Amino acid sequence: MARRKKIYEGKAKILYEGPEPGTLVQYFKDDATAFNAEKKATIEGKGVLNNRLSEYFMTGLNAIGVPTHFIKRINMREQLIRAVEIIPLEIIVRNFAAGSMAKRLGLEEGAALPRPIVEFSYKDDKLGDPLVPEEYIIAFGWASQQDMDDIVALALRVNDFLSGVMYGVGIKLVDFKIEIGRVYDGDYMRLVVADEISPDSCRLWDIKTGQKLDKDVFRRDLGNLTDAYTEVARRLGVLPSNVTHATKPTLIN
Ligand SMILES: Nc1ncnc2c1ncn2[C@@H]1O[C@H](COP(=O)(O)OP(=O)(O)OP(=O)(O)O)[C@@H](O)[C@H]1O
Ligand SMILES: [Mg+2]
Question: Which of 30, 49, 48, 52 is CA-nearest to residue 40?
Answer without folding.
Answer: 30
